[in-house]
Amino acid sequence: MEKTEEKKCRHLAIIMDGNGRWAKAQGKPRTAGHLAGSDNVRTIAIAADELGVKYLTLYAFSTENWKRSENEVNYLMKLPGVLFGKYIDEFVERGFHLSMIGEVDALPKETQKVLNNAVERTKNNTGLNLNIAINYGGQREIVLAAEKYAKDVLDGRIGLDITNEQFEQYLMTKGMPNVDLLIRTSGEMRISNYLLWQIAYAEMEFVPESWPEFTPEVLDRCLAEFEGRDRRFGGVKNE
Ligand code: IPE
Ligand code: IPE
Ligand code: MG
Predict the structure, then answer these.
(1) Residue 236: inside a domain
(2) Total domain count, the chain
(3) From first to last of its 239 residues, what are the pLDDT tens digits of the chain?
């Protein structure tokens, strides 16, 4: 018999997609969609915490999103300030532990300051791990990990034959479990360079709702569906 704990989603990753289309459908600029989307981060983080998720990794900005207009990129870079300006006290109170993955050094200084401050203020918390992927790309992450590993080999700190678990220590998600469930909103069925290593055995759900329309009820449904799935990890059922 499987224990129900084993069926639970510990690490949930979400590709928060569809902000622009959501705004367009309402005759608003794309930025209005991003603002609604950033408010929904708070709603869904609280819901995920209450539903027992331990790690929530949210895709906020990809290494490819720099291709967008200057206006949109500038707006997206200001959003962490807006989000944490409104909600950091509440996140601290709720015991959230904030972290980031991505090449944070390449973000505008002001954005880095806001993010580092949020990490600092929540560093001793042991509740929901709210992990923001910003200027993140899965391929870049693996290349950077390989570079660090190569340096350690050259410096004689580690040998040439390492396990997957040892390699994971070089990834930006070091210390986190691999992803159990990946949800993408807005009906697109692709990965867009997200957590390529960590989703090796993740379950996937693609929902039609755009990110601003993704409610705690939809999340609850997704987690229920996840718990009903039979994850075999390459093995055989009931063995
Ligand atoms: C997701 O919404 C947010 C980011 C990628 C930053 P989009 O901005 O991609 O919205 P659509 O997909 O164009 O509707
Ligand atoms: C993925 O969404 C990135 C984020 C949600 C931050 P995109 O909207 O950038 O992905 P594509 O371009 O449709 O694949
Ligand atoms: Mg999109």
Answers:
(1) no
(2) 1
(3) 444 667 899 999 999 999 999 999 999 999 999 999 999 999 999 999 999 999 999 999 999 999 999 999 999 999 999 999 999 999 999 999 999 999 999 999 999 999 999 999 999 999 999 999 999 999 999 999 999 999 999 999 999 999 999 999 999 999 999 999 999 999 999 999 999 999 999 999 999 999 999 999 999 999 999 999 999 999 997 65
Residue 192 within any structural domain of the chain: yes
**Tokens matching residue 209:** 């709702």
What atom of ligand 2 comes closest to residue 188's alpha carbon? 13
Is 129 among the residues known to form the active site? Answer: no
What is the CB < 6 Å shell around ligand 2?
Answer: 15-17, 59-62, 65, 188, 190, 192
Q: Domain with 189 in it: what CATH number? A: 3.40.1180.10
| Pairwise CA distance, residues 65 & 136, whole Å | 10
Q: What protein residues have CB closer than 5 angstroms to ion ligand 3?
A: 17
| Dist CA 56 CA 120 (whole Å) | 18
The answer to whether position 159 is within a domain reads: no
Phi, psi of 89, rounded to the nearest 5 degrees: -60, -40
- Residue 51 structural domain: 7-137+180-227
Catalytic one among 19, 39, 65, 152? 65
The residue written with tokens 């055989």 in the block is: 236
Active site residue 65: yes
- Kindly report the pTM of this predicted structure: 0.97
Whether the CB-CB separation of 227 and 205 falls below 8 Å is answered with no
Q: Is residue 165 part of a domain?
A: no
